Amino acid sequence: MGTGHHAALAARVAPGHSVAVIGDGAVGLCGVIAAKRLGAEQIIIMGHHKSRTDLAKEFGVTNVVSERGEEAIERVRALTGGFGVHAVLECVGTGSAIGESLGIARPGGRIGRVGVPHYDTIPDAQPMFYQNIGIAGGPAPVRAYIAELLPDVMEGRIEPGRVFDRTVGLDEVPEGYRAMNERKALKVMVRP
Q: Fewest beta carbons less than 10 Å away: which of 16, 62, 97, 113?
């Protein structure tokens, strides 16, 4: 939850904003919760795993974009009246994900990136510069967010624990990681 929240803060999500979340993994889904919690009006998730995008809808997503690349960019632009979104939460870390982020952010928009980069440079530096698109993010200072987020969890206002869809014992940890890697599990909880 702390990492999704960090992406939303880095992207400066605010009440009334349109937000796109790239990635339907646990961090992306928690980014949806964070965007909703911060007052976003339109929340678009970019993902293609139906069980995950269905959960995202329960968390407050208004639109699902399962396309990728240029088709995804065109679809998000269509959903936002041609403007693009105010804020992008990039929760994947691939070059294509940052490229899509730049393609869907409106002029003056912000990208909060928390996906560990799998690329050396950010593409399209000149369009980013001339459209005043800001990029921020990095490793989430999760401990710094606990005092803010934990009361919402404990009082049931948000339910990030719903991303756990499998439980394993300590001796099953390798199988748990394998299941997540093979996309057979979203997030695995380890119980002693």
A: 16
Handedness of CA 1, 117, 69, 67 (dihedral sign): negative
Q: Give the residue among 150, 146, 104 at the shortest CA–CA distance from 127.
A: 104
- Residue tagged 């980014």 (tokens): 31
Tell me, yes or no, whether 26 and 54 share the same domain.
Answer: yes
Return the CA Rg of the chain. Answer: 16
Asked if the model's pLDDT at residue 129 lies above 90, the reply is no
Q: Does a structural domain hold residue 153? A: no
Domain shared by 69 and 99, yes or no: yes
Residue range 121-148: average pLDDT? 90
Domain that holds residue 54: 2-142
Give the span between the Cα atoms of 16 and 35, in whole angstroms.
10
Are the C-beta atoms of 57 and 51 separated by less than 8 Å? no
Q: What percent of the chain has pLDDT over 90?
A: 90
Q: What angle do CA 156, 4, 175 make, to 5 degrees?
A: 90
**Neighbour-count burial for 51-60, b at 16+ CB within 10 Å, e otherwise:** ebbebbeebe
Number of domains, the chain: 2
